[in-house]
């Protein structure tokens, strides 16, 4: 169960299901309200899993740096979800999801800039192919 690729593939499967389920759910609902409902479900689910796998005292062991970056990540997630649900409200899931997955390209760039991860010809090519795929799928 420590195989990162398996977990990443499961994440991709669930993210794919999320797009379709969200598109069905946001059909006659305000996008911001839909995001709030989804976020509430995620909040309860995430805390349930966290409390089942960690003692509550583990919170005290977190550094201020960890709190800061986890909070900033949460803000970025919230902004991403608000934008994603607005896009789903306005456009087809089959076009919105590929554009949303351009986040992979941003991760490659941000990881190189801020984490010192290598930006090799392979990662650049992969990023270019992802970008090309998103453009082809989103093209009218």
The largest sheet, given as strand count, sense and whether it forms a barrel, is:
none
Helix/strand/pairing class, anyone?
mainly alpha
How many helices? 6
Q: What is the number of E strands?
A: 0
> What would the average pLDDT be, to the nearest integer?
94
Helix content: over 70%
Query: What gross morphology would you assign?
Result: globular
Q: Measured on Cα atoms, how large is the radius of gyration? A: 17 Å
Amino-to-carboxy terminus distance: 41 Å
The helix/strand series, from N terminus to C terminus, equals HHHHHH
How is this structure best described in words?
The longest helix is centred in the middle third of the chain and has 27 residues, at 64-90. Helix 2 runs antiparallel to helix 3 and helix 4 packs antiparallel against helix 6 (121-138). The chain has helices at residues 4-25, 31-53, 64-90, 93-100, 103-115, 121-138. The model has no long low-confidence stretch (mean pLDDT 94). It folds into two domains: 4-91, no CATH class; 101-140. With 140 residues, the chain is mostly helical. The protein contains six helices and no strands. It is 79% helix and 0% strand. The protein is globular and about 50 Å long. The chain starts with a helix and ends with a helix.
């Amino acid at each position: 169960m420590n195989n990162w690729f398996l977990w990443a593939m499961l994440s991709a499967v669930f993210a794919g299901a999320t797009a379709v389920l969200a598109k069905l759910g946001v059909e006659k609902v305000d996008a911001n309200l839909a995001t709030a409902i989804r976020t509430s479900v995620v909040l309860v689910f995430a805390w349930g899993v966290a409390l089942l796998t960690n003692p509550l005292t583990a919170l005290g062991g977190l550094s201020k740096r960890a709190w800061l970056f986890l909070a900033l990540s949460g803000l970025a997630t919230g902004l991403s979800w608000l934008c994603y649900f607005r896009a789903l409200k306005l456009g087809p899931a089959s076009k919105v999801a590929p554009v949303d997955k351009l986040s992979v390209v941003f991760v490659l760039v941000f990881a190189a800039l801020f984490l010192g991860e290598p930006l090799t010809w392979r990662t650049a090519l992969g990023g270019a192919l992802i970008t090309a795929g998103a453009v082809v799928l989103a093209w009218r």
